[in-house]
Structure formats: structure tokens, C-alpha cells
Design brief:
With about 425 residues, this protein is α/β, with parallel strands linked by helices. It has two domains: about 260 residues, TIM Barrel, CATH 3.20.20.10; about 130 residues, Lyase, Ornithine Decarboxylase, Chain A, domain 1, CATH 2.40.37. Helices cover about 30% and strands about 25% of the residues. It contains twelve helices and 21 strands. The strands form three sheets. Strands 4, 14, 15, 16, 17, 18, 19, 20 and 21 form a nine-stranded mixed β-sheet that branches. The chain has an eight-stranded parallel β-barrel with strand order 5-6-7-8-9-11-12-13, surrounded by six helices. α5 crosses α6 and α8 packs parallel to α10. It is globular, with a radius of gyration of 23 Å. The site of pyridoxal-5'-phosphate has 18 residues, from α11.
């Protein structure tokens, strides 16, 4: 579901022509739809209405201040993985008391900062981390709220690089060891055992792995609640989205299938999980990232050259893997559409960036309308794990970002000035 639609032959984000934004702000350009972000949050919120719950948006999926502000204004909490993310949330007006701090490598400085800000919970991934948090809390004369992340050893059936819930992975504490860990944690005086956490992977397109994981941990959570008076159970994020509506719907092009089928809806997710979770009598915490932000953003790019070789038709665009690394990193599929809809024959094309890497591509042998230099394309579903993973590889500036709300649009991140890229660099003293 999203609000990127053709109106006439022009691709619009809500009530704004995307081409007008591309001309005004230049490309490569990320464009986000506030209405899409809002509706995704509200759909999940409504679906879970039967249980006390807290939706903690995974900041790592999209950390733009305007995006975070949108979710903070809706009453959302945040799933954070660093001090930087916590500072970002606070700068955007988010409430630290609704922040869950995840991650296997929290430093002493990060723990101290988060404790002082009063985060909702530290989601702890190892015994040494429990001891470290206890030590710092003692020094600050505080009690640290903690939840232990269990690794339920359930296969999420997703891409290897975003699967997290089996014993092959660095995340969480093995299911069989968790009770012992809680028992030892209960003896640490400056910890308060508040919850139980798991997150089995990302881009899950079926409800079964979630169900399987929840079913597996239920008896354990009941025992832990009875023993330590837990307040919440966090079932993590991972709800998958539709990246390829054309394939899903069996229709030739996405713009002919306005209502592409969603593979895993919040309604289905809630219908299967709420009956399992409700009897626990605990608050349910969720940490969706991609489900909220993924289809709420696109990456707009301009065609610089059309290069025809004997075998291929290359569309060389001004966006590159430094702007959106998902195709190179996760073998990800992104739907690509022109900003001006065209009828006529489709040409199998490779959409590639200017970076000096063969991995710098967005699509291979993709049937696309015949295009020329100066035409604009949009890469859809780029709102999650897009801009946040941008780098300066090849000394390319990071793209600008725009937020649209109805007929309004605003530049919510300026294009990075190129000299900023080397601003902290200097020749060594003996070179002057
Ligand atoms: C990445 C992550 C999430 C969010 O994952 P999505 O697939 O974007 O929903 C939630 N919780 C934890 C612990 C994560 O590492």
C-alpha cells in the first residue's frame, strides 16, 4: 500500500508531481509520503487494538528527522541500536521512555547515555552485556530496565543477510539457556527484569515463522512472568512488504494493478498472534521498520546516458549503489517506473549507476519503456534501508530527501555539499 500513483501520465506522490520535485531539488532524490507512513502505523496499531501494545519503529530502516517526527506525533516509540539513533529520536521530538535499545555491541558510553535518558528497555543480547549494564547502573545509582533477547532457533525463510533467529546468528541468547540467564540476571541488584524479546529476521512474507516462534516461547514467557513479574513481551519486527507487485498479482505492470495483493497484512498478523499473546496479560511490543517505511519512499534518478552494446541496453542513471545498496547487498528487487508513463514497446534494459563496480546496478534485463537521456525513473519501495545505508563511495554526495504531505512538500535533508565529504581530512604534518 502506498500513495505513489499516476495521475494522468505523471507519477505523483500524494498530491505532488514527482517530476516537479526532481526539477526543483535535483537527483538522485529520495521522496517520502507522510500519508503512507501514517497509514502503515495506524493499520498495525488498529490491528493490535485488542492488546495493550507499543509500536517501536525501527529507526535503522529510515532515520530522517521528518520521518521520525511523523511517527513520534502518532504516539509511536522507537527501536534504536546506537546512541546516535537515540539522539536522533530525541532531536525529532521522540520520547526516550518509549525507546527500546537493541544491538549486540552496546558500548559503556552508550549504555550510560541511554540510562540517563531513561529508555524503556535495554534488549540484552549476552551475559557480559547484562553484567556491564548492571555495573554502570550501580555507578549511576539507577535500576536499568532490561529484557533478554532470546534466539528461538526458528528459520525465518528469508534472505540470508536478514535472517537472525537461528543458532548460526550472533543475535540473542539460545532458547535453552535463557531461563538460566534470567535467574542470574535476577541476582544483579541494579537490573529490573521488565520483558522478553525476540526478532527472528526481516522481510518475512508469511505469518508462519512468527507464529512458530511465538508458540515456541509461550511456555517460557509464562514461567518468566510468574518468576520475575515481567511487563512486556517484544515480538520484534520483520513484517515483509510487497517489492514486486507485478509478479505478485500476475499482472504485467504494477501501474495496472493499483491494488496489488499484500502478502502479509497486519490483520492476518494480528489475527494469528493476538490469540496467542493476549492470555499472557503482558504488553506487546513490536519493532516494525520496513513495514512502515519501505513502501513510503522512492528514489528518483535521471538517465544520463543510454548505451547500447551488441547484447545489452544500458540505462546509465545518476543514482548509484552508494545511494541504494539493496540490489548489490541483498539481491533485492526494486520496481522501476518512469515519472512520465509511456505506452509502446518495452525494451529489456539494465539500469546501472556510474560507480566503478559491476555490482552497481538496480536492475538487469528489465522490460522498461524506451527511454532517453534526461528522462526520470523512480525506484519504488526505497523508503527502508535506502538512504540510511548511503555512503560516500566514489566521493559522491549523499542524496537529498523530500517529505510530501498532501499537496505540500518540503526538503527534509539537503543534498550533502561535496566538500563536506573530506572536511575532516588533512595532509599529515610532514606533508606541508
Ligand atoms: C532490524 C530490526 C528490526 C526491524 O526489522 P524490519 O524488518 O525492518 O521490521 C526490529 N528489531 C530488531 C532487533 C532489528 O534488528
Amino acid at each position: 500500500m502506498h500513495y505513489f500513483r499516476y495521475v494522468g501520465n505523471r507519477l505523483c506522490c500524494e498530491g505532488v508531481s514527482v517530476e516537479s520535485l526532481a526539477k526543483r531539488y535535483g537527483t538522485p532524490l529520495y521522496v517520502y509520503s507522510q500519508r503512507t507512513l501514517t497509514e502503515h502505523f495506524q493499520k498495525l496499531d488498529r490491528a493490535m487494538a485488542q492488546v495493550d501494545h507499543l509500536i517501536c519503529f525501527a529507526v535503522k530502516s529510515n532515520s530522517n528527522q521528518a520521518v521520525l517526527r511523523t511517527l513520534a506525533d502518532l504516539g509511536g516509540g522507537f527501536d534504536i541500536v546506537s546512541e546516535g539513533e537515540l539522539r536522533r529520536v530525541m532531536a525529532a521530538g521522540g520520547d526516550p521512555a518509549k525507546c527500546a535499545f537493541a544491538g549486540v555491541g552496546k558500548t559503556e558510553g552508550e549504555i550510560e547515555f541511554a540510562l540517563k535518558q531513561g529508555v524503556y528497555s535495554f534488549n540484552v543480547e549476552s551475559e557480559p552485556e547484562l553484567e556491564r549494564i548492571n555495573r554502570i547502573a550501580a555507578r549511576l545509582k539507577k535500576k536499568a530496565p532490561v529484557a533478554v533477547r532470546v534466539n528461538p532457533n526458528v528459520d525465518a525463510h528469508t534472505h540470508a543477510k536478514i535472517s537472525t533467529g537461528t543458532y548460526q546468528h550472533k543475535f540473542g541468547i539460545a532458547y535453552e539457556q535463557v531461563e538460566g540467564v534470567y535467574a542470574r540476571a535476577a541476582r544483579l541488584k541494579n537490573l529490573s527484569l521488565r520483558g522478553f524479546q525476540m526478532h527472528i529476521g526481516s522481510q518475512l512474507t508469511s505469518v508462519q515463522p512468527f507464529e512458530q516462534a511465538v508458540q515456541k516461547v509461550l511456555p517460557l514467557v509464562k514461567r518468566l512472568k510468574a518468576a520475575y513479574g515481567l511487563e512486556f513481551v517484544s515480538i520484534g519486527g520483520g513484517l515483509g512488504i510487497v517489492y514486486n507487485p507485478a509478479l505478485e498479482s500476475g499482472l504485467p505492470r504494477w501501474w495496472e494493478s493499483r491494488q496489488a495483493k499484500t502478502i502479509l497484512t497486519p490483520t492476518l498478523y494480528a489475527a494469528r498472534l493476538v490469540p496467542l499473546l493476549k492470555p499472557l496479560g503482558l504488553r506487546v511490543v513490536m519493532e516494525p521498520g520496513r513495514f512502515i517505511s519501505g513502501n513510503a519512499g522512492i528514489l528518483v534518478t535521471r538517465i544520463e546516458y543510454v548505451k547500447r552494446t551488441g547484447k545489452k541496453n544500458f540505462l546509465i542513471v545518476d543514482a548509484a549503489m552508494n545511494d541504494l545498496i539493496r540490489p548489490a547487498f541483498y539481491d533485492a528487487y526494486h520496481e522501476i517506473v518512469p515519472l512520465r508513463r509511456k505506452n509502446g514497446a518495452l525494451v529489456n534494459s539494465d539500469v546501472v549507476g556510474p560507480i566503478c563496480e559491476s555490482g552497481d546496478f538496480f536492475a538487469k534485463d528489465r522490460p522498461l519503456p524506451r527511454s532517453g537521456e534526461g528522462d526520470y525513473l523512480a525506484l519504488l519501495s526505497a523508503g527502508a534501508y535506502g538512504f540510511v545505508m548511503a555512503s560516500n563511495y566514489n566521493t559522491r554526495s549523499q542524496a537529498a530527501e523530500v517529505l510530501v504531505n498532501g499537496k505540500l512538500s518540503a526538503l527534509v535533508r539537503e543534498r550533502q555539499p561535496v566538500a563536506e565529504i573530506w572536511a575532516g581530512e588533512n595532509p599529515a604534518p610532514w606533508q606541508v
